[in-house]
Amino acid sequence: MLFRSSAAICGALIALAISVAVARAETRGVHASAVVDAASGDAVVGRASMYNPFKPGKEEGGPSTASGERYDPSVWAAAIKTSLRQKFGGVLFGVRPKFALVEAVGKKVIVKINDVGPLRPGRIIDFNERTMRHFDPSLERGVIDDVKVSPLAGDYWTPGPVS
């Protein structure tokens, strides 16, 4: 009995340590100068909105993204306008997704571009729920103006806030 209790306590401590490490990693973010240096090509400026195929709406896509990944509202991801597909590395099924630096309302975040879509006029990017909450915590705006999206060189970025 004592062994089982000790094992349970040990497991709980390990789980707590992992969750603290993950929380610290997310709040630390990536240093801004390193990201700005890696921004490749010209930035695209326009409007951003949010998409979630699991919420009702006639214009929402299915749960699979253009890269073949399943839509996940809890990661840092976005869908780029179809006409910008090549600028952001193709976004093709089975190909590793590309990354972009997104700047708006005084905040910066690295997102994984894993989907494309025929967005409404003036919109260049659709955020998943987590990314949209970064820029609009209450989700009341619906659309964010003057969003700057810059493709990032390389394939191994860690998505999340940039400090």
UniProtKB/TrEMBL annotation:
Q: Which Pfam families match?
A: DPBB_1
Q: From which residue to which does the signal peptide run?
A: 1-25
Q: Which CDD domains match?
A: DPBB_RlpA-like
Kindly list any coiled-coil regions of this protein: none
Alphabetic keyword roster:
Signal
Q: Does the keyword Signal apply?
A: yes
The source's domain of life comes to: Bacteria
Where would I find the RlpA-like protein double-psi beta-barrel domain in this sequence? 45-145
PANTHER family (UniProt xref): ENDOLYTIC PEPTIDOGLYCAN TRANSGLYCOSYLASE RLPA (PTHR34183), ENDOLYTIC PEPTIDOGLYCAN TRANSGLYCOSYLASE RLPA-RELATED (PTHR34183:SF8)
Q: What's the protein here called?
A: RlpA-like protein double-psi beta-barrel domain-containing protein
What is the originating organism of this protein? Bradyrhizobium cajani
